[in-house]
Design a protein that fits this description.
119 residues, mainly beta, 4-stranded mixed beta sheet, 3 helices
C-alpha cells in the first residue's frame, strides 16, 4: 500500500487550489514526482513541496491501495480529491471548500470540519 502523509509548511492566508491532492494524481509516481505537482496559492503558481511536507512510501501502481493522510489545518485548501476515482484520503483536521468535487469512487474521511459544497 502506498501511503503518503501531507502536512502544511505554514498557515495559509489565501486560498490554495489543492486539486492535485488526490490518489489519482499520486498513483505510479515517485515522491520526487509528486512533490513537483503544480497548484495555486492565491494568484501564484507553486509546486506541492513549496507548501507541504510529504512523507511516506513510494506510491505503487494500484489506485485502490493508494492512501493519503493530511494532518493539520487545511481549511484554506480547496478541491482536495477533485474527480477522485479510487484510493483513500484521511484528513485529520479541517478542510476547505469543494472537497471531493465530482468524485466517482474511493473514500474521504474528515476528522474535523469541511467547507461548503463537499462531495
Amino acid at each position: 500500500m502506498g501511503a503518503i502523509t501531507i502536512t502544511a509548511r505554514h498557515a495559509f492566508k489565501v486560498p490554495v487550489n489543492g486539486e492535485c491532492i488526490s490518489p489519482d494524481n499520486f498513483v505510479s509516481k515517485s515522491i520526487k514526482e509528486i512533490s513537483q505537482l503544480q497548484l495555486w496559492e492565491g494568484n501564484r503558481r507553486r509546486v506541492l513541496s513549496e507548501l507541504f511536507i510529504l512523507d511516506g512510501e513510494e506510491v505503487g501502481d494500484e489506485l485502490t491501495a493508494t492512501s493519503l493522510r493530511l494532518v493539520g489545518d487545511f481549511g484554506k485548501v480547496r478541491r482536495i480529491g477533485a474527480r477522485m476515482t479510487g484510493g483513500e484520503v484521511l484528513i485529520e483536521g479541517n478542510v476547505g471548500m469543494h472537497l471531493g468535487e465530482e468524485m466517482k469512487g474511493g473514500k474521504i474521511t474528515v476528522l474535523g470540519e469541511e467547507g461548503s459544497w463537499a462531495g
